[in-house]
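Onboarding guide, step 5: your first structure request.
Type a short instruction followed by the sequence, for example:

Predict the 3D structure of this protein.
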Amino acid sequence: MEQVNARPERLTDPNTNRVRTVKRLSGRAFRVKSSQIRVEGPQAVAELCRFAPDAVKDIYVGELATGRRPDVVQLALQTTEWMHDCDDSVVNAMSSDGQGFIAVASRDAIDADLEQIAEQVVASARPVVICPQTQDPGNAGTLIRLADAFGAAGVVMCKGSADPAGPKVIRASAGSVFHLPVVADLTFDEVYDVLARKGTAFLGADGKGEVPLPVLSANKGPVGLGSPHAWVLGNEAHGLAEDQLEACTATVSIPMSGQAESLNIAAAAALCLYASQQGRQ
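The system replies with structure tokens like these:
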């Protein structure tokens, strides 16, 4: 008689070493040490299963979530034999932000090479998004999601930015971090050297930028959006540093007619990336 693999036993105790280990993955140092990441929420877990199934180690599903999202439960069962039914107290102890779905995956689920991104930029004129110091995890994840939505070649989170492998970034990206290449832990100068060598133009989004975005979109600026380019997006509070502005081929402003002093980084990125998308068509 053929032996059928049994499902893992239901997890009922929120005070085990397993639960504590998963909880510790919120810390960057432990993620680096263990080479693992924690993925939270039904959307992000589903995208992990679809786009990086080989990286999945364990999936934990709470009792209420089973009824709310049977589609994600089915996808999890198809992805790994290590899907664990859990009491809600167990998944909530792992993270209060999982909405009943937590996955543990290997760190290489989010892995990319800057040289490969640079080649894609040149071959397709899809932009790369460079974040020299985007520190807020929610903003970082939203930028990755926007880059994915508007067809960017990749995203670079330079040293000093939020870790793209952090649970909050992954959740804010709605799983887009598993769709496109995301590079981390390089300095702005290192990123500049690689991309400049490939002939990439650097466009700095800046409230006082010399070229209005509509001028650039009309192909009347110094850089055509149908040619290889990178968008450089500044820190949420302080914008781009002087040396970063000086490195840019052009600085780009977004005209506004209202009383708001500025746009937040996500709103500015959306407009810039949409313009790039239109420039490729």
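Each response can be followed by summary notes, for example: The chain has two domains: 17-110, 114-280.
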